[in-house]
Amino acid sequence: MNLTYRLATEADLPEIVSMLADDKLGATRETFQEPLPMAYLEAFRSITNDKQQELTVVEADGVILATFQLTFIQYLTYRGSIRAQIEAVRVKSTHRGQGVGTELFQYAIQRAREKGAHILQLTTDKKRPEAKRFYISLGFVDSHEGMKLAIS
Amino acid sequence: MNLTYRLATEADLPEIVSMLADDKLGATRETFQEPLPMAYLEAFRSITNDKQQELTVVEADGVILATFQLTFIQYLTYRGSIRAQIEAVRVKSTHRGQGVGTELFQYAIQRAREKGAHILQLTTDKKRPEAKRFYISLGFVDSHEGMKLAIS
Q: Is residue A88 part of a domain?
């Protein structure tokens, strides 16, 4: 497949949300309906107005197959380093198991390097062991615990 | 102790870096010397110019005892939610075991709520089991793996 990558536009939003919802965990978290709940549009604008965020769509022949979000975070640690964080990675259910995820990560790694990041990081739910195996296969190390506290 | 919280200024930077370096893992990562390497100042300015970041110092009687960094990240997931991420948490070695960390987290949780975050998250190195126990005691759940990929 010849994949292309571009920043998402508002017109892509329904397709992106439908991918986020089309997943065993995502189905309980998202509300995919037309018109989309306004909260998604507001969140989208907030993301695209933030220079440290990139919401990307992956296409083949003009059709969206996948999405991911990169956030670049400046820290003082490691002598003033930047980390790239990747979240909300989804490949359309009809196109899984075809190497799209691997190519997507190669692109994300390259993009993170361009932005000067020394680490690419993510957290993955322990209820998704297959996802962890995939990240290990890409070279990620499970050196950290990902701790979450619900505060609302 | 009567702790107060404020955003860090450039004048606090040597004190903050000395705390980051005064730690078994931090010692190998940081360079604390006067004058500080310029990379820290550049990183500091990048953090303070970013509306989604807050680098905070904790004081008692005008003396800095601790520091932490909050990042607010807008996502589409969970119907357009904001997550707060806390990193670079350090309590001065002379003041550990006195409840400063617990109070610091109570403040950070309140601040994250004010910013509309529904989750406060962090990753903690598996080589710091005592840190994980502390986060569990605060109510954090170790539901995720924190995966890191060195890219430079």
A: yes
Domain assignment present for residue B149? The answer is: no
Contact in structure between A52 and A73 (CB atoms under 8 Å)? yes
* Cβ(A77)–Cβ(B68) below 8 Å: no
CATH number of B104's domain: 3.40.630.30
Which domain range does residue A51 map to? 4-137
Contact between residue B87 and residue B121 where contact means Cβ atoms under 8 Å apart: no
Alpha-carbon distance B65 to B140, whole Å? 23
3-class SS of residue B76: coil
Which residues in chain A are closer than 8 Å to B139, comparing Cβ atoms?
A: 149
pTM as predicted: 0.94
In tens, the pLDDT along B63-82 reads 999 999 999 999 999 999 99
Looking at CA atoms only, how far is residue B29 from chain A in angstroms?
Answer: 5
Which ipTM was obtained for this model?
0.94
Tell me the chain B residues in contact with residue A8 when contact means C-beta distances shorter than 8 Å.
none
Cα torsion A39, B7, A87, A65: sign: positive
How many whole angstroms separate alpha carbon B65 and alpha carbon A119? Answer: 29
Q: Decide if A44 is inside a domain.
A: yes
Indicate the SS3 state at residue A16.
Answer: helix
Instruction: Let me know: does B69 contact B55? Beta carbons within 8 Å.
Output: yes
Condensed to tens digits (0 to 9), the pLDDT of residues A33-64 reads 888 899 999 999 999 999 999 999 999 999 99
Contacts for B51 with CB less than 8 Å, ≥ 6 apart: none
Assign A70 to helix, strand or coil.
strand
d(CA A24, CA A128): 10
Q: How many domains does chain B have?
A: 1
Helix (H) or strand (E) holding A4, with range, is strand A3-7
- Chain A residue closest in CA terms to B13: A76
